[in-house]
Design a protein that fits this description.
The chain is of the alpha/beta class. The chain is built from 9 helices and 7 strands. A 7-stranded parallel sheet has the order 3-2-1-4-5-6-7, with helices on both faces. Helix 4 links the parallel strand 4 and strand 5. Helix 4 runs parallel beside helix 5 and helix 7 packs across helix 8. The radius of gyration is 18 Å and the shape is globular. Bound molecules: NADP nicotinamide-adenine-dinucleotide phosphate. NADP nicotinamide-adenine-dinucleotide phosphate (NAP) binds next to helix 1, strand 2 and helix 7. This is SDR family oxidoreductase. InterPro entries: NAD(P)-bd_dom_sf (IPR036291), SDR (IPR050259), SDR_fam (IPR002347). Belongs to the short-chain dehydrogenases/reductases (SDR) family.
Length: about 260
């Protein structure tokens, strides 16, 4: 199916690796010009080069910087001639015990996983509405639906973003102008972040890494971890011309791990 996105411009945040990279690759594969960001420039430039090589017809721009900072956001926005598609993403907050977290830890999590997407939405939606096309996808987490106790910073910040999005996605001046805002909730995807989490679990319990990974896979009905490519493909679908009637939704991609009916 042609997703009708050829020639559009996308800003894909936090995209040198993992899920963000998967989204940038899938969009570029649909003929979308992409601006990708990450803090580390080496991996970012390597990813940009790989996307260019695979998609000679699209323009790929790399902007190094922290998307959770005002300077990082300004640079990312300035690099995109017009933003038709915005993929909000950033690293997740660290795990821990809520008793150890103070104001500083909370503000860092809120900045990266709630206020940064809100700032970027604010900077882009009205121009999208004026042009009559806009797609915003926020990468959040399955933990929004099924909170994980040690990820309290993530549960809190991402749920705040989710509540905000539920309200604004339904504004007639956005939904009525073909601007959609949805959240994609990853379960377990095989990225560097997941590998680090598994390695930390293995070290803590003194169990071999493969045993820890096998146990985690066995708890997922699909019996495997997701791939960044399949995450990117669903993201591209949400951004498609055909998806204009799909807005304000939380879409769980978890291989069936969430056990509820809804
Ligand atoms: P990843 O493999 O660690 O990749 C993270 C990417 O984001 C890298 O390119 C990283 O590059 C960039 N990044 C991180 N913080 C940034 C910042 N402040 N500004 C700009 N770029 C930044 O992680 P992932 O697995 O793709 O996860 C992406 C998001 O999904 C995270 O919020 C994570 O918590 C969430 N999530 C993931 C899973 C999963 O199973 N993978 C499950 C649930 C939720 P630099 O480090 O160079 O900046």
């Amino acid at each position: 199916m042609d997703l009708g996105l050829k020639g559009r411009w996308a800003l894909v945040c936090a995209a040198s690796k993992g899920l963000g990279r998967g989204c940038a690759e899938a969009l570029a594969g649909e003929g979308v010009n992409v601006v990708i960001t990450a803090r580390g420039s080496e991996a970012l430039e390597a990813t940009a080069a790989a996307i260019r090589a695979a998609n000679p017809g699209v323009e790929v721009r790399a902007v190094a910087g922290d998307i959770a900072s005002a300077e990082g956001r300004t640079a990312a926005l300035a690099a995109c001639p017009q933003i038709d598609i915005l993929i909000n993403n950033a690293g997740g907050p660290p795990p821990g015990d809520f008793r150890a977290w103070g104001r500083e830890e909370w503000l860092a999590a809120l900045d990266a996983n709630m206020l940064t997407p809100i700032e970027l939405i604010k900077a882009t939606v009205d121009a999208m509405a004026a042009r009559g096309f806009g797609r915003i996808v926020n990468i959040t987490s399955g933990a929004v639906k099924a909170p994980i106790d040690v990820l309290g910073l993530s549960n809190g910040a991402r749920t705040g973003l989710t509540g905000f999005v539920a309200g604004i996605a339904r504004q007639p001046q956005l939904a009525g102008r073909n601007v959609t805002i949805n959240n994609l909730l990853p379960g377990a995807f095989d990225t560097e972040r997941l590998q680090k989490t598994l390695a930390a679990g293995a070290a803590k319990s003194g169990t071999p890494l493969e045993t820890v990974a096998d146990k985690r896979r066995a708890g997922i009905p699909a019996q495997r971890f997701g791939t960044a490519a399949e995450f990117g493909a669903i993201c591209a679908l949400l951004c498609s011309a055909q998806a204009g009637y799909l807005t304000g939704q939380n879409i769980l991609l978890d291989g069936g791990a969430y056990p509820g009916t809804f």
